[in-house]
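Action item from last week, closing it out:
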Amino acid sequence: MGEPTVSVIGAGLAGSEAAFQLARRGVRARLFEMRPVRMTQAHRTHLFAELVCSNSLRNASLETAVGVLKEEMRRLGSLVMAAAAASAVPAGAALAVDRERFAGAITAAIEQEALIEVVREEVTSVPPGPAIIATGPLTSEALSGALSELIGARHLYFYDAIAPIVTADSIDMTIAFRASRYGKGGDDYINCPMTEQEYADFVAAVLGADKVAAHPFERAIYFEGCMPIEELARRGPKTLAFGPMRPVGLVDPRTGRRPAAVVQLRQDDREGRLYNMVGFQTKMTYPEQRRVLRMIPGLANAQFVRFGSLHRNTFIDSPRLLSPSLNLRTRPDLFLAGQMIGVEGYVESAAAGLLAAINAARMVAGREPITPPRTTALGSLVAYITDASRTDFQPMNANFGLMPEPAGRSRGRARKIEQAARALCAMDAWIAEHHLAIAPPVTAAA
């Protein structure tokens, strides 16, 4: 028998990173990409890791969790981070790239790796292991069907309806109050009450806010169970007050009366540090969400760890299906990575591909899988998406709210700096313990 080969399905950011990591760790990879034989409705080129929605890889500062995640990836020898550095364009505090140069650099690096075989064809069935599926939000119908047969149709989703999440300590509890409707279920919800005027002003702001334009393949995504708040508002000025903002069964303890409308927030993590805005999926742009949602009484200083969205996205019920090493619990030789596992963002997708490749390489070598420490940005994200106690799973991006609180009493910027330093120290120790260091990738922007 020859050397083991790991099949990698999809040459987006996660799949490209995975194939490169396998090769650099001495494992043969067979990378399947259906473009240009079959194009998607979003992609325009044959290049690997084509960026289709934005050229920004978001904030580069170590005072943000995604900035910390980028640095963790650099220390693990990330191809995506090396290509981003080679194709970066001015963008202030963000890491933005020239899309074509970025994809060209990754494509060239992949094609130059002797241990990577590139196959340009559509994969229509789940491959035998070892394998990594990283086909992203636009997974083909045939492969989606095959995956449904393997994991069960109830565990595969095709549309995100994501509500914003805020940190608990940024909610003004002198305005908001804890209660459940009609007193049922204890004080499980935080409620932000509105007067008639506040509600009218909020609805007007929602209607007037800039929205994210839908792709052609997203035209039919609205259904009654997850309508964006702006679509509800268009149906009439009182629609939101009879929908996600209904005040029935709630009494503001400060006034003794029922508010005109209420925004409810529900605990989103075990520690009670993150709260989800119930029913607030939206297509407003991120800057507009920050502006409009801070009009809600009690949220004037809200810190958002995730903004709302509603878009086409194939993803699995990871808490039910995946182990923390990113392989299926029921089929350990099959790994999944990228947006398919419920991580939001280019950087998070690539990081998932990197971790899946590390563990696939360990598997073919007969070694146990590993997971980054919970105190790292990558480890905290993986812990979130594979938490089996989670009952209402929605994709998430890297954020400090997922990391354990530091032991000290620091707050604000000082706390973020402390968390970043702790994360990178833990990542360095993990890399050293498991001998994960590889030579830094060298890329030239194409």
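Closing note: The chain has two domains: 5-158+315-433, 165-307.
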